Amino acid sequence: MENHHIIVRVATPDDIHYSNTITDEMESSAKARGTGIAKRSPAYVELKMQEGKAVIAVTDKGEWVGFCYIEAWGHDKFVANSGLIVNPAFRGHGVAKSIKKKIFELSREKYPDSKIFGLTTGLAVMKINSELGYEPVTYSELTDDEEFWKGCRSCVNFDILTSKQRKNCLCTAMLYDPVEKLKEAEAKAAADKARQEEELAEIANQLSVSATGNIQHERKRRRFKGNIKLYERWLRFKRFVLLNNSKKEGGATGQKKKFFFLF
Predict the structure, then answer these.
(1) Which ranges of 92-157 does DSSP label H, i.e. alpha helix?
(2) Which CATH class is domain 6-176?
(3) Does 195 score more than 70 pLDDT?
């Protein structure tokens, strides 16, 4: 690869002229690895392009670089990002990662409530999936749609799959569950909020205002762990205490008080 700018985007009907090149590379790549990518016809790849359910990578000069497409199963309960393939001339430059990220985003956009899964024998793909939020699962957690499993018939390992009653194979199953991810995000947000409130309460307990308006603060070095919002809340609290006390004392005596904040 020499001085090429690579563009990763959603495929369109204008890209169908790449279909034969893509399917030929899928087949030759599977043979070279001795493992399987379910064989797809150029017509099937073209259909995915026409439906806007594929991602393609090309150079600014129009050379094909990589491809991946979306398949929906089980009445759209499951979505698979399938057929990831990269032109051998462009491998080792992060193209696969960019395509996987783009197809993942497209899947979330088109099927926001669907579980996204994948079967792979490649460690590189497993690492990319993990970074996107996928987790390894058993085959029983994948779709039971027969049409999906029929696609494995062209794989060289299909006999292994059937001998294991479709419970295991050489591929690793990985799954992204949007419901579980939402629960995890909500739990993390609740834990973060509780921790911030606990830290703020601790600060409030350390800060005491005497009847004469003198403010005392324990000589303790606080670490805010980089939490700027918590620091801002602490400053607002301190300002509130100071100004409130100043108004009360000033109204009672008609004199302004001086305050000192001791660190």
Answers:
(1) 95-110, 123-132, 146-150
(2) alpha beta
(3) yes
